[in-house]
Amino acid sequence: MRLSKILVFTTILLLLLSAFAFGADLESLAKQEGKVVVYSITSRIANAAKAFEKKYGIKVEAYDLHDFELVEKVSKEVKSGITGADFIIAQDSGRVFGELLEPGYVYSYVPEDMKSVIPKEFQDPLVFSFISKVFCYNSETYQAPPVNNIWELADPKMKGKFFFKDPFKEGVNMNFLTMITSPKWAKRIADAYERYYGKPIKLTTKNAGYEWIKAVLKNGLVMFTSDTKLAESIGIRGQGVDAIGLFAYTKLRYRKSKNLALMPIMGMDPFAGFYYPAYLLMVKNAKHPNAAKLFIDFLLTPEGFKPWHKSPGVYSSNPNIPPYPGDNAFKVWKEILVGEEGEFIFNNRADVEEFWGNFAY
Asked: Which sign, positive or negative, has the C-alpha torsion 101, 104, 105, 108?
């Protein structure tokens, strides 16, 4: 027994020493490259870049791009043999899967010291963070959630009182609509219909997911161009706002900074909103691969994630980084939100876009 314990201790020690040696070697190689280029879908990369430069003395060129711009730029550059980004922070899993990962333009790199930390399910492709969008109401108008089932948003009593960002303005919103047409979620939506109306749903479309999309559009869905404007419209005080909004949970930080009355509906049946991942991915023809790998490792630490840790609604893939104070852990949200599946979205989003266009405009 004593020998066994010694062997286990020795093995762990060797692994730690190996990881330390690897990290030291990577840092040395990264410093020799002296620079790293990153394309990101979030402006918070600028503050992370400053922290990385200060710690390692490696210059960072960071570019903040819209999700569709980033995907198109990387695919065109790699296809043409042009050296651009060394790594990317990307969202819109359908396009990332079909236009970047499948052609081999990008790939996952998981730092050695993170392989036993980041859950396996988030390593390929490597997830940097998750962002949530949640149904919310005006907590000044109502003391408790005014609706508890998504089908209430299609009820005549809620006509013109459901606010949502135009899915053609942000890909993740269309991804959400695509996911609710998947067999798993369509079944749950059908069950929720029966719980609300007391009878089985009668389909006029492919499934209950499509049926709900059609129903809320016909019930006067109000579309916004930004989640910020949407949150402000829902949470404004003194106006008796009785609408429901589905928007980024990060906007709940406005409860203090903008004095908005906002509360989430966590008990909404059968889902309280949706979440989507942001990925950390190496670019195939990276000019500064070691600096990119070091920066990726940095972003997965509490120090590197700090710029994203300033509001609720953003969760690191590193479970050792706690959520924003007062927010729920991602594992809580994961159980009640619709999540993205890149392959399903890539194969089915065009159909949902066409369906949406037939009823929305």
From this structure: positive
pLDDT tens digits along 59-77 = 999 999 998 999 999 999 9
Query: What is the CATH code for 2-129+277-327?
Result: 3.40.190.10
**Whether the Cβ atoms of residue 252 and residue 328 lie closer than 8 Å to each other:** no
Closest by Cα among 310, 309, 88 to 318: 309
- The domain covering 131-275+345-360 belongs, at the CATH homologous superfamily level, to Periplasmic binding protein-like II (3.40.190.10)
What CA–CA distances, in Å, run from 320 to 196, 317, 323?
Answer: 39, 9, 9
Average pLDDT, the chain: 93
What pTM was computed for the model?
Answer: 0.90
- 88 bridge partner residues: 39, 281
The DSSP code sequence of 172-219 is: HHHHHHHHTTSHHHHHHHHHHHHHHHSS----SSSSHHHHHHHHHHHT
Is 53 in a helix, a strand, or coil? helix
Q: What is the DSSP letter of 91?
A: -
